[in-house]
């Protein structure tokens, strides 16, 4: 019998959502707090990421070294990241170590040291991350594409920029923490071998008296130009293409996701077959669906030689537009087989489930079971996807290229 998904909202606004997975010996958590890069001041790009970096340098009664040792001694496999909307802290460990692990993260989220004497070390880490992106043209073009496709601040890069990172002070970081790290708007997803009543009580003990904060307002400005070329001395050209789609919360999201799955996601997918395999135009090509809370987009990438860049762009845009002619039943069958394999693997991963639970709650205000997702996938048909594509054809393209020469682009 499948275990249900439980949820509880504490008086301070913190949401706990959990799925017991009795066949496992582990437990995983994903904590989303509303401290994303959209809340960075215009002249402090990367502040959310910098704050995340500094929060790891000691909390509660642990200095930076002891903080790391305690998590290592608990066997926690951990990760941190910053997105547009949230800062995420996640980890997985043996079930018996989950209470002590959550206690460590309660200190991080509520009582970080944010030590002034380590800000230069933190700044160096942030600058190294920024340089790593700038040294990787494929990442750089997609970051710049997103910046131009979405309205500001939703397209901002999480890494920030050199000038902002150099100017950031410990007072900036402490102010951002006080402004953004609070329970209302935060979501804790837990999956694995857990006892729901005990977990609910534990989280209440650790976070129940955490004081709520104010809600920040995001002010948007229009998106950028439809096509922009970024000069780059190279024998290669990086091509990024984006077009509007529907967000995760939309009733037709899985139709959009299915259409993108036909484009990309395997060696039999259209972009790989038509752009790379048949014509040999590029060494890498893919498409992925990206969602914010109230808008979605499809982002495509192709990396190619500069001498074949124009043809690569033309053929890729042609394949995107050709989607409106419809997908075939054989393509849908391959897609469903691939997705069901991914769902089965997710059933065996507490980390994947904790992340999905938190994400679902943010987008939907509830969490979908894997059985429900499976039913939505089973309900996809070539007719339903083709109907979606007729109503939402790929168009209004935003294109960004990085390489030695600009290309001719028709974005309509």
Overview of this protein structure:
The chain has 412 residues and is an alpha+beta fold. It folds into two domains: 6-207, 2-Layer Sandwich (Cytochrome Bc1 Complex, Chain A, domain 1); 227-403, Metalloenzyme, LuxS/M16 peptidase-like (Cytochrome Bc1 Complex, Chain A, domain 1, 2-Layer Sandwich), CATH 3.30.830. The protein has helices at residues 47-55, 64-73, 98-110, 119-134, 137-149, 162-167, 170-180, 196-207, 253-263, 270-277, 309-322, 329-347, 350-364, 370-378, 382-391; strands spanning 6-9, 15-20, 26-33, 77-82, 87-94, 187-192, 227-231, 236-245, 282-291, 296-305, 398-403. It has a six-stranded mixed beta sheet, with helices on both faces. The chain has a five-stranded mixed beta sheet with strand order 7-11-8-10-9, sandwiched between helices. β4 and β5 (87-94) form a beta hairpin. α1 packs across α7, α9 (253-263) crosses α15 and α12 (329-347) packs antiparallel against α14. The protein is globular. The model has no long low-confidence stretch (mean pLDDT 94).
Produce a short descriptive summary.
The protein is α+β, with helices and mostly antiparallel strands and 412 residues long.
